[in-house]
Structures are given as structure tokens and as C-alpha cells.
Amino acid sequence: MSTIPSTRKEMPITTLSSPTVGVGKTGFWRTFRPVVDFSKCTRCTLCWIYCPDAAIARQEDDSPKIDYDYCKGCGICANECPVKAIAMQREGE
Amino acid sequence: MAQTVIDTANHIAAIATKAARVQVIAAYPITPQTSIVERIAELVESGELDAEYIRVESEHSAMAACIGAAAGGVRTFTATASHGLVLMHEALHWAAGSRLPIVMPVVNRALGPGWNIWADTTDSMSQRDTGWIQFYCADNQEVFDTIIQAYKLCENEQVLLPAMICLEAFILSHTYMPVEIPDQEKIDDFLPPYKPGWFLDVNNPLSHGNIVSPDWYMEFRYMMQEAMENAKRLIPEIDKEYGKYFGFEHGGLIEKYKCEDADLILLTMGTIGSEAKISVENLRKEGLKVGTARVRVFRPFPREEIRKLAENKQMFSIIDRGISFGMEGFLAEEIKASLCNQKDRPLIAGFIAGLGGRDVTFKTIEKIAEKSSEWMRAGRVEKETVWVDLKE
After folding, report:
1. CATH class belonging to A28-90
2. A17 → closest Cβ in B98, B210, B223
3. Among A50, A61, B107, B355, which has the highest number of CB atoms less than 10 A from its own CB?
4. What's chain B look like in SS3?
């Protein structure tokens, strides 16, 4: 069900799909890229909580790891960070 | 032993959910449907029916709950009427498109304004394009039998569509009639537990109703149309099989009465169909060769059977308890469409009668037949649509 059918006979009866990783990578929508300054980061995890796309992983030491395949660059993490440890940098610069 | 009970069609519908071993019921009250879900609440509370009973905050939510439950792979039920049904409209499309075999009695009631709680089919007829199968019943026994038959039909892997079991407000919903309830063991044999082809499972995550591009949307719609065609083939088979099991058959797609040698056919739906039999008896005594055909299934529409019925007939008179504003009666439209490519077809006249619960008695129907017979002899229909007993 995660593969695209080529004929009607291969189709499911209704639009069914299993979760897969690798399709619909939304990272390419991004104009600004969040970059974490780990020397400032206090491991408060607010960016991880606020990320609306679950594109920030919480690592073992509570520091954030941004998944750039899916981060759309909305900037909410940068806005929420209480110590301004996340900078939004224009892509390609 | 089979048991005969005397009860209202609404209570009979509740008994049918128990007989069908329904697993989830979503309930929201609306006149004249309320006594269905009230009686089911009693059955669940007393432990007679082992099911989840979900009280919801609207009919839209009732259908959403049914979609969730059916997608979880269980046998699901709700019931509604009138404004409740039209509030559900969006969710009806989701249920059919998700191919979920939900069964839902619709107690046909007029839509406001003016506020009116009596019989009228405009509520369910305005849902005809949602992809739901639609049955229309003529008596309480048929309500019971059709609910059991509908689960068997809808859960068939060649169909997998939801179904409405339509019954007219008060004429059936609150009228007591004797109904035979077959042995549970025999019902279990006729209607085994539902085996879903897919279901939502936390151990094997799946989602449904996802986005589908123009590349594939049409194919999903085509499969729904195919399922409707399959249902059209299976309904008479299931009705016959039910008859063999329990002794009750309801005519498959169309119940015909004295049609074979008739020149004039009165086409009806629901309880007007049973009333019309009395008219046919009376008119035949006066020498009019008349028969009546009650269209039991409106979706899928029995186009081929209508064509067969039309062979060698002089006139079709169609009685609708509802109107598609700006055109004509719902059944009249479909019958004309079914016959449009036929070379020799009968004259066709449409009659609008009984809106908002106005009585359609055998006398009303005889009046319709007499007017029809006049036009039949003249070879010309004077008026495409006649409003019967309309005050001038």
C-alpha cells in the first residue's frame, strides 16, 4: 500500500496508506534555515515542544536535532527559544 | 423458535440491531427516529445487546463516530431523520468513499420550514448522490428483514458500501404491526460476523481518506460505481436466500403486483406501494387493467428491471412523496431516464402526493389511476407533473 499502483486492479478499495519515511519531504519549501548555537542552548526543550512538524528530535542530553528533510523553516523554534540560541539563516547563503 | 412480536417499526429496527449483533451504535435523537435509539439504549443497558453505545452531540458526529468504528472493523449502526440526515450530509460522502458497510435507518420526515414532523421522502432523496445504497420499506416486517439483508449485502467484499433503510414517519415508525423475529441461531447462520478487508490497528498503522491526485481519483469513483452495480445483482439474490431461510421475500429490487397483464402501471415507493395494492384490486373490479410496482431500492436504481417492466405497457404513472424543486418527482426523473433509449415506451406521468405527511389513501391512488387511464385512452399526457389534492 505504500507503493504507487500502475493499474486499477492493484489499487486498494479506498485511499489507504501505511506510514512511510521518505515521501513528501517538505524541507525544500524552506526559505530560512534554523541553526542552533549549542554554546548558548540550555537544553530547555522548548523548541522540541513547539515545532509544529515534529521536525526537531530530542537527543539524549535534551539538545535539539533538526531534521532538515522535513523542517519547513517556519521559525517558531527561533521565536520561542528563551536564550536566542537559534538563528534563521537564508538558504543558500 | 421464531417469535411473533407486535411493535412499531422503530422498535422493530432496534430488535434488528440485536439480531444482527451490531457492535457499535452512535445515537442522537430526532423525531420521529428517537424511539429506535431509545430502545437500543435499553437493550444495551440490560445486557441483551453486547455493544458500545456512543452518545454524540450531533448527527454529523454520529456519522463520524460510525466511520471511526467501522474503520476499526466492527459492525456499526446509527439512525436518523430529516434535518439530522441533512446535517450528516458531508460525513455520508466520507462513509461511502471509505467503503464502510454502515447500516442506518432513515425515518423519512419532511424538511422545514414550515416545521413538520410527518412523512416525506425529500430528506433521503436529497442524499441520493452520496454513494449510499437506499432501501425503502412498506411494512414493519420489511424493516426488520431489510436491516439483516443490508448488513449481508453491505459487508459483501464486492459491495462494501453503506446503506440507508428508509421508512416513512409515523405511517411505519410509530405504527404497531405483527412481525416475525426468526431464531437467533438461524440469523447467525445467515449473517456471520463481519470480516473487514482492512481496519485501523495500532500494531499495523494505516490511514484512510488521504489525498489522492487527479491521476487516481477517477478510478476510486469508478470502483464505487462498480460496487453499486454489484449490489444491484446481489440484492435480489440475498432477498431470495433470506426468503429460503426465513420465509419472507420483498421482491428484490422492485415488488410487482398484478403487472403481467396490465396496461397501466402505478409506480410507487414505501407505504404508498402497499396502499396501491388495494386500489389495484378495486380498479380491476371496474375493468381497468392496472398493476403496481413498488421500487424497493432507489440506489442502485433498477434501470434494467424498469425497462423490462415497461415492455408492452401503455402507461406508467409515478407517485412521488417528494419533489426536486425546478424539475419533478425523484422517482419520475429516474424512470424517465431509464427509458430514454427504449424504442417503444409507455406514456409517463408524474404525480406529487402526500408531502409533509398528507394522507395518500387507496382512494387518492384510485383518483390518480383514473386520471392516468383517461390520458392513456387519449394517447397523450396532458400534464407532465400533477400535484394531487392541491388546494386552489
Report:
1. alpha beta
2. B210
3. B107
4. CCEEEEEEHHHHHHHHHHHCCCCEEEECCCCCCHHHHHHHHHHHHCCCCCCEEEECCCHHHHHHHHHHHHHCCCCEECCECHHHHHHCHHHHHHHHHCCCCCEEEEEECCCCCCCCCCCCCHHHHCCHHHCCEEEECCCHHHHHHHHHHHHHHHCCCCCCCCEEEEEECCCCCCCEEEEEECCHHHHHHHCCCCCCCCCCCCCCCCEECCCCCHHHHHHHHHHHHHHHHHHHHHHHHHHHHHHHHHCCCCCCCEEEECCCCCCEEEEECCHHHHHHHHHHHHHHHCCCCEEEEEECEEECCCHHHHHHHHCCCCEEEEEECCCCCCCCCHHHHHHHHHHCCCCCCCEEEEEECCHHHCCCCHHHHHHHHHHHHHHHHHCCCCCCEEECCCCC
